[in-house]
Amino acid sequence: MTYYGPKEIAAAFRTVRNNTIKIAEEIPEEKYGFRATPETRSVAETLVHIAVTPRVPIQVHFTERRHTLVGFDFFSVMGALQAEVAKPRTKAEILELLRSEGEKFAKHVEGASESFLAEQVTYPEGMTPPVKSRFEMLIAPKEHEMHHRAQLMVMERMIGQKPHLTRQMEERIAAMQQAAAGAASKA
Questions:
Q1: Number of neighbours of residue 56 by Cβ within 10 angstroms
Q2: Which of 118-149 are b and which e, b meaning 16 or more Cβ less than 10 Å from the residue's Cβ?
Q3: Residue 1 lies in a domain
Q4: Which pTM was predicted?
Q5: What is the chain's Cα-based Rg?
Q6: Range of the domain at 161
Q7: Cβ–Cβ < 8 Å for 135, 118
Q8: 54 bridge partner residues
Q9: What string of DSSP letters covers 50-85?
Q10: Residue 87: what are its φ and ψ, rounded to 5°?
Q11: Domain CATH for 53
């Protein structure tokens, strides 16, 4: 038995996705075309990339239930994802895509057994490490999303917004400081 199993992976992924959705909600639609630099993804493209990327582990682990990635056509799969990112969408459509695709991935993971998560998947020759557990591979989408969410938070700053997670942290610190000051004045 592990202490971090399928339900915990799904819950952690949902937390990360909900924070991404909050960022997507707070950025005005007219800023969805903003790019930090000309060669980077726009806000909209980054959000769609985040939304659709979990389709890859769903295909690998749940649809095909692959035990090896030897022969897996990454370029075809990535091409399909790039086509999704390139489709024009409204803010509302992107938010719905984030919600629906995120929940689809979380439900797949949540229904996995611990023995399934322990299965090993072999990587093509030359990859390091040569083998990973499904567990490690299925926590990667959360890590990937957090990487891109950090980019979104920088973009928020660049368009003059303070990210909600920063605001929440500042509120917690202010409340703790106020409580400490109140306790000190009573002593």
A1: 19
A2: ebebebeeeeeeeebebbebbbebbebbeebb
A3: no
A4: 0.93
A5: 20
A6: 6-186
A7: yes
A8: none
A9: HHHTTHHHIIIIIIS--SB-TT--HHHHHHHHHHHH
A10: -65, 130
A11: 1.20.120.450
Q: pLDDT tens digits, residue range 6-40? A: 999 999 999 999 999 999 999 999 999 999 999 99
User: Is the residue at 69 inside a domain?
Assistant: yes
Cα distances from 101 to residues 58, 73, 165, in angstroms, run 10, 22, 23
pLDDT of 1 above 60: no
Inform me whether the pLDDT recorded for 186 exceeds 90: no
List, for residues 100-129, the tens digit of each pLDDT value: 999 999 999 999 999 999 999 999 999 999
Question: Is residue 110 in some structural domain?
Answer: yes
Q: Based on the structure, what is the number of domains in the chain?
A: 1
As given in the structure block, the two tokens for residue 37 are 């630099």
Report the run of H or E that residue 3 belongs to, with start and end: none
- Cβ pair 156, 163 in contact under 8 A: yes
